[in-house]
């Protein structure tokens, strides 16, 4: 934040009164739409100066901004009335200070945007930190769910190696982002996930059996066995089905947020995506639209350093993702993604702002993808094993959080082993059951293409059934006809 | 430049607007394509679409319109005229120029309870595309990968009631990047419904059906028809009016040859039928209305009666709508065919700009007349002349 203040001071220092470029612009040739832009709101301008305090104190601010022709006329007049001795230009979007210095804004800041954290590496609260209190009950559920997530990943990963499921993808290293963000939300908040956020579903009560049913694509899977493993979705949990195409969920989230806003609901939308996802046009379109339309949506970027084998240095040259939020006029924060308390506090506060003020928020969580990208990947081919080990051991978010709850006397080794035994048993049971449940019936090939199947699909289904009846040996016996 | 462009565009095209060069509107000259008895009330396709939007927005507060220039400017083609004033900026949204963005945003809004109508300035912009090696990522990505597939992939948990609409196909004098017909593209994707109106009655009835439908609908309009007037019945003017999706309309009954067409080509087919009638050939003209689902039953019943088929479309021939219709007839009515199927389509080239070449690149009435005559053995088949 120091960065901000220093920059604005710089600009003010270099103000001079001479007008340069303006004379060259023929005002009448400017497109009409130029005057339609709205001045930066006061709340927003204040926030630029001191984002931290405003996070907590900004009054509810949500006027519907609509262009009025009278306003536009006033604005165009001020352009004409421009006084050469003044040092600022009243311009659509707000006042702009002049400078006689020929200077380009640097592409990289002198100092990178700071990273908010609450727990130090030993799981102790850093003195003087501002954070939202987490009570014992919530803290213990957070910890248990992080452990469960880690164990679920280990066991499903093994099941894939044994050939029992076709594909899997772990969340290892990103447990805090998953669980702490979910803990700071309510079940009414809509989730538009990428694919590395199953912990949000877990927090909301999706059972290990339900996870297993999806991975095994059986009859009980809410997706009727139609998608590859880990593409979870559940209406009941307000968790929209995972979309394989990177970043498509980001504009979807903004659309849903727009819907919530029109309904005046006391909820927001939360969408997750990776560092790689921010290179897609969808990310940019979604941020811009959310900003312009004041959509109550929280963008959570898991900057885990890698997009399959592409390091972030090949993904962008900006100071990560947080500065992009600012560029689109969105309040943004960078958080230690391996600090569950910091994430909880950031998401909790973001939710309040999103709902009370109807505006988008961007959170960049710095973390690391400790596992391979997926079971189709061997990441030691493109990154040093020591790097992985350092993040896995020294920066493990689960261990850090455990140290904190232990220092509160809320947890001990005995409860820890009870938890682990119980989760392991449940997992093995879930896999056994999921494997035995029947596969989805033939009818499910044809349902849901449309709300009601059209005649050509009805015909196709009839034809398929007749063919199976005629040549039963050519079809797998475990498919219920 | 502006003047030249406007002249080239000629009577009635407002395509210049999309190119960002003309803000002035020229009212299309009344088309001389059809003559009607003056008794019935007439309505332009533009007013038909506008009134359908208005009525559905008024009937259902979940319906909203989003796109470039739909609000303040009232639509590049004035289809959304008056709607911003009536329904306010929350329901008539001007978007930034990011087709992929607002298409995705519309899909998200439909995922969660709203019924968006997404207007593309032209369907060419629905392609707004960057195509990385693995997956196409663009507005069409959201139509195909999100809208069309979500209901299926979520096993019915996420349905996507939305309409993508805008002018499709060749306009006049706007070149390759504004003149492609995408009917076959969208119609090849399960999960989508694809409609293409011809007359004002079609426009009203089909757009209302599209908005009320629980599935995603691609609604392909034609810029050159917007200003054209058609008679409309009292029934079609009623706010409850709605046409069934998946049903074709027999525009003109005949017994010698079946001509299928959609959108602007229906008018051409009807004109061809007039000419053919003078030569003693009775042509049956089918207005497809719905490209997906395709009304195979109506098409096949007609071919079984006439035993001859001419398909007409403005799009490219390969894998086109005509190809699909031809297959359907070969599969279901092969034994009834008395002549090879004639396929009239756009030339297999990107649209040229020069007016003389442009005319050669899209089907003309005389092409349809000649096709029908060949099918009736009243002209030498093309193959024989080669
Ligand atoms: C549109 C699209 N392009 C490419 C891919 C292939 N792909 C799958 S995951 C992935 C990397 C994404 O990285 P990131 O967003 O950082 O998420 P992470 O895997 O690190 O959690 C890529 C390129 C895809 N699924 N969709
Ligand atoms: Mg990544």
TrEMBL record, chain A:
One of its GO terms (cellular component) is mitochondrial matrix. It catalyses: N(6)-[(R)-lipoyl]-L-lysyl-[protein] + 3-methyl-2-oxobutanoate + H(+) = N(6)-[(R)-S(8)-2-methylpropanoyldihydrolipoyl]-L-lysyl-[protein] + CO2. Keywords: Metal-binding, Mitochondrion, Oxidoreductase, Potassium, Transit peptide. It is found in: Mitochondrion matrix. Residues 146-441 form the Dehydrogenase E1 component domain. It holds the Pfam family E1_dh. Its cofactor is thiamine diphosphate. One of its GO terms (molecular function) is branched-chain 2-oxo acid dehydrogenase activity. Its EC number is 1.2.4.4. The keyword RNA-binding does not apply. The keyword Nucleotidyltransferase does not apply. CDD domains: TPP_E1_PDC_ADC_BCADC. One of its GO terms (biological process) is branched-chain amino acid catabolic process. Heterotetramer of alpha and beta chains. Belongs to the BCKDHA family. This is 3-methyl-2-oxobutanoate dehydrogenase (2-methylpropanoyl-transferring). It comes from Parasponia andersonii (Sponia andersonii). The lineage of its organism: Eukaryota, Viridiplantae, Streptophyta, Embryophyta, Tracheophyta.
TrEMBL record, chain B:
GO terms for biological process: pyruvate decarboxylation to acetyl-CoA. One of its GO terms (cellular component) is mitochondrial matrix. It catalyses: N(6)-[(R)-lipoyl]-L-lysyl-[protein] + pyruvate + H(+) = N(6)-[(R)-S(8)-acetyldihydrolipoyl]-L-lysyl-[protein] + CO2. Residues 43-228 form the Transketolase-like pyrimidine-binding domain. It is found in: Mitochondrion matrix. One of its GO terms (molecular function) is metal ion binding. It comes from the Eukaryota. Transmembrane segments: none annotated. Keywords: Metal-binding, Mitochondrion, Oxidoreductase, Potassium, Pyruvate, Thiamine pyrophosphate, Transit peptide. InterPro entries: PDHB_mito-type, THDP-binding, Transketo_C/PFOR_II, Transketolase-like_Pyr-bd, Transketolase_C. The keyword Transit peptide applies. It is an enzyme of class 1 (oxidoreductase). Its cofactor is thiamine diphosphate. Pfam families: Transket_pyr (PF02779), Transketolase_C (PF02780). Its EC number is 1.2.4.1. Tetramer of 2 alpha and 2 beta subunits. The pyruvate dehydrogenase complex catalyzes the overall conversion of pyruvate to acetyl-CoA and CO(2). It contains multiple copies of three enzymatic components: pyruvate dehydrogenase (E1), dihydrolipoamide acetyltransferase (E2) and lipoamide dehydrogenase (E3). The pyruvate dehydrogenase complex catalyzes the overall conversion of pyruvate to acetyl-CoA and CO2. This is Pyruvate dehydrogenase E1 component subunit beta.
